[in-house]
Structures are given as C-alpha cells and as structure tokens.
Write a structure and sequence with these properties.
Length: 291
C-alpha cells in the first residue's frame, strides 16, 4: 500500500511545476554561483608568488586566472560551495518539501485518501519518505552541476580522493541536508499549517533555528552545566565540524570530535535527528483527525 501511494506521489511531483522550478534553482545556485565567483576572481586578478618569492598579480585578460582554476580537492570544493545544512540549498529543498506535503491538506486529498481506511501511520511515513527522496534528488543535482561546472571551466585539483572517500563524503553531506529537511517537514506535519511549515523550513534550512537554539542552550547552561553537552549534537553545529574530505575522514587528532572520528559524530547526529523527527511525526499523527 505504501509503495503504491509513494509511486502516485512521485508521479504528481515530477509532473508539477514546483519540482522543476526548485531543481533549476539548485543548478543556478550551485553552478551559476561557482562560475560567477571564478569569473570575478579571474577578472580582478589573483595574487601569486613567482619563482623569486615576489608577490605579483596575475593577468586575467585571457580567461580564468590559474589560481582561480585551482582547488584543493573535490570534497573541499563541495564543502566551500555552501552545500549542506544551514545553506540556501537546504532552505529551498525544505520549503519545497513542506509545500508538497501540505498541498494534500489544502486540496482535501488526504481526507479522501484516509477515508478509504488507509493507515494514518502509512500516510505519514510516505510523506516523510517522499521528502527524503526529494532532498536526495536535489543534492545529487547540486553535486553533479558543481562537478560539471568545474570540468567545463578546466578546474584542477591539488589532491585526489579515492572513490570510496568521495562517495562517503557525498553520502554524509546528503544525509545532513535530509536531516534539516526532515526536521522542517516534521514541524509542519505536527502543526499541520503551511504557513508555519514554510516559516520553519526557512528558519531551519537557513540555520537560523540552530543559532537561536545555541543561544538558548548557552543561557540555560549557565544554571545547568550539563545542558552545554547538548550543543555539539545540534545539526547546525555538526555541519561545521568538517571543511573538506581530509578533515572529515582523518584519523589524527584534527579529525576527532568528542573522542570519535568527525564522520562518526556527524553520522550519529544526523541519524539521531532523523529518527527523532520521524518518531515524533508518527506518534502525533497516529490517531489524529485528518481534518
């Protein structure tokens, strides 16, 4: 039953305008921004050091400056692109997911659907799974557009990661964005309000909610020190732990957080928040009236 419902939802989503508008926005946000920054860096010239140790300004009149076409690694490029939680990408996808989920209530579709004795738990799980798939699609589009842009501009990389490291890094970045989106969708489904859901998507996706929680927890920690231990497990703080693939998968002291590798900390944090969001949504909507 859930598979048929999900297939119907995907069909309606792909044949709708919101899906392709956000997909196009993701491409412009990633590839367009990267190209613009490179062109601006090339046009203004780049400071370089010649063989005699003298700092000079590169002549960029013939195209992109050499330094503008050089990046540390593929994973560093993906990190510096603003992909992940607390970013425009997460905010766009979270807003789209909330609109897709809440459209059923506005159109009365969910009332007719559940009148056919479909389980509320199945329907809620379907909405959450659809949001996760929608997020994974847009993150994949963002990664592909960034890599193709670098290829088209002739960008070179100082370090080359192994395929396994690169895929693991992309997987963890995707999981991070899914976490932010799932939190926003869970709040929307619990409140059952499109306006509240969109506001939550903007605040959560852009990282504003994380900053506010940091302030609140810091104030409470002044009276209850143990509360300060919770702040490293906020998704908005977790995404700041790694800047590139080397830091994320390093086994040295620089790649350790709370006594564990950074990637393990991030994985536990993201999975924990996803489970919490799904559990809260299913629990609240288990016997709730659909009206």
């Amino acid at each position: 039953m859930m598979f048929n419902l999900l297939r119907s939802d995907l069909y309606r989503l792909v044949h709708g305008r919101k899906f392709w508008v956000v997909t196009a926005s993701v491409v412009l946000l990633t590839a367009g921004l990267l190209t613009t920054l490179m062109l601006l860096g090339a046009a203004t010239g780049a400071a370089q050091t010649d063989t005699d140790g003298v700092t000079v300004t590169a002549n960029a009149t013939s195209g992109l400056a050499a330094s503008a076409r050089m990046m540390d690694s593929h994973t560093a490029m993906l990190s510096s692109s603003g992909m992940g939680g607390g970013s425009m990408l997460a905010m766009f996808v979270a807003v789209l997911a909330v609109l897709v989920v809440m459209d059923d209530w506005d159109a009365g579709f969910v009332k007719n659907l559940l009148a056919g004795r479909r389980s509320r738990m199945v329907y809620a799980a379907d909405r959450l799974l659809l949001s996760a798939l929608l997020t994974a699609w847009n993150v994949a589009v963002a990664i592909a557009s960034l890599e193709l842009t670098c290829l088209a501009l002739g960008v070179r990389f100082r370090h080359a990661e192994s395929l396994g490291t690169y895929l693991a890094f992309c997987g963890l970045k995707t999981l991070g964005v899914i976490t932010f989106v799932m939190v926003a969708v869970a709040l929307a489904m619990i409140a059952r309000s499109k306006a509240f859901g969109v506001a939550a998507a903007v605040l959560v996706g852009a990282g504003v909610m994380g900053s506010l929680l940091n302030i609140v927890l810091s104030m409470i920690a002044a009276y209850a020190p143990w509360v300060g231990r919770l702040t490293p497990w906020l998704p908005s703080n977790t995404v700041k732990l790694y800047a590139d693939g080397a830091g994320l998968f390093a086994t040295t002291a620089g790649g350790v957080s709370l006594g564990m590798p950074v990637w393990a900390h991030a994985l536990i944090c993201f999975v924990g928040w996803i489970v919490l969001s799904v559990g809260a949504t299913l629990l609240v909507n288990r016997r709730r009236d659909v009206c």
